[in-house]
Design a protein that fits this description.
The chain is globular, with a radius of gyration of 20 Å. By secondary structure, it is an alpha/beta fold. Strand 3, helix 1 and strand 4 form a beta-alpha-beta unit. It has an eight-stranded parallel beta barrel, surrounded by five helices. Strands 1-2 form a two-stranded antiparallel sheet. The longest helix has 16 residues. The protein has a single domain, classed as TIM Barrel, CATH 3.20.20.100. Helix 4 crosses helix 5 and helix 7 runs antiparallel to helix 10.
Length: 340
């Protein structure tokens, strides 16, 4: 049966924020393809998640050349889904991809060189069966390539019509400021900055997020649930089939520490008092700053995606709640020596 999009998708409850000093609005919750959309995953489940996301107002789909596994397979699967069900909706979608990490063997399959970025984007467009992407990112700062070379390649990619906007991801503060200024001088301003952010990873609060706000650059966070640590999934150990239990996953079992579990359990108590799951509260908390344009969430099922979207129903925090959360997060890990 042919897919028919929900005609009420823009009134389904999704909220949108303007991306920096631009005319682009993004849903505050976006769908990421880092996990669960590769060749090792169930294609029908992936398709159902994309349809559910779009039907509930998610217009932003975040990919990268190396997402899988195997690298590239998430883009290939997205291309199959797009070709079958979403061609008629292309102008309603923000589709992004990135290059910067290792993608293929040899001298030119990694980093920030003009050769790599342009070759990679051509490959990504071919896998996704697209003429252009809406946003193309430099996925990481490459200290072995002159930053001007990387940034000029991004500018030229826009001028070639292969991307409408460009962004950067995981750049240090000094290089971030240089990139923003360089790109603005070339009349191809940086639309958006992407970095890790969650209750368990708050580094960007000190420099990166304020710099983006000062320069009118949108911000999108990945791993806002700390790859599942800020859900109820690991409150009682590592369940079979979870990311930490999968050998190909980025979350390893030794990262699920008792220290983090104890924090998650206390946060979960607060979430229950708010009438939310831990995941819902963690997403709402990450959106408390209006400079945060969107959060990229991963999901392994429609049910999990639906649960995450419930965060939108309660985004407000009292001062006391924010203080309690800060107190929980700032608790130091206690270590004991042999005499204690």
């Amino acid at each position: 049966m042919a897919y028919k999009a929900n005609p009420h998708r823009y009134s389904s409850g999704m909220k949108y924020r303007t991306c920096g000093n631009s005319g682009i609005k993004l849903p505050i919750i976006s769908l990421g393809f880092w996990h669960n959309f590769g060749s090792v995953d169930n294609f029908e489940t992936a398709t159902d998640m994309v349809k559910f996301a779009f039907d509930n107002g998610i217009t932003h789909f975040d990919l990268a050349n190396n997402y899988g596994p195997i690298p590239g397979s998430a883009e290939t699967n997205f291309g199959r889904i797009f070709k079958k069900d979403f061609v008629a909706h292309r102008d309603e979608m923000i589709i992004t991809t990135k290059a910067g990490h290792l993608m293929w063997d040899g001298l030119y399959g990694d980093g920030g060189s003009r050769k790599y970025l342009m070759s990679s984007l051509d490959q990504s467009l071919n896998r996704m069966q697209l003429d252009y992407v809406d946003i193309f990112y430099s996925h990481r700062f490459d200290p072995f390539t002159p930053i001007e070379e990387t940034l000029q390649a991004l500018v030229d990619i826009v001028k070639q019509g292969k991307a409408l906007y460009i962004g950067i991801s995981k750049y240090p503060a000094k290089e971030t400021i240089f990139a923003y200024k360089f790109l603005k001088e070339q009349n191809v301003p940086c639309l958006i900055h992407q970095d890790r952010y969650s209750m368990f990873a708050r580094d960007i609060e000190e420099k990166i997020l304020p710099i983006a706000g000062e320069h009118g650059v949108g911000f999108v966070a990945f791993s806002p649930l700390a790859q599942g640590l800020l859900t109820n999934r690991y409150l009682h150990g590592i369940p079979a089939g979870s990311r930490a239990a999968r050998p190909e996953g980025f979350l390893q079992a030794d990262q699920v520490t008792q220290y983090k579990i104890e924090k998650a359990m206390k946060l979960n108590e607060l979430a229950e008092n708010r009438g939310q799951t831990l995941a819902e509260m963690a997403l709402a908390w990450a959106l408390r700053d209006q400079r945060m344009t969107s959060l990229i969430i991963g999901a392994s099922s429609v049910a999990q995606l639906a649960d995450n979207l419930k965060a939108i129903e309660n985004l407000d925090f009292s001062e006391d709640e924010l203080k309690q959360i800060d107190n929980i997060l700032r608790r130091k890990e206690v270590t004991y020596n042999g005499n204690q």
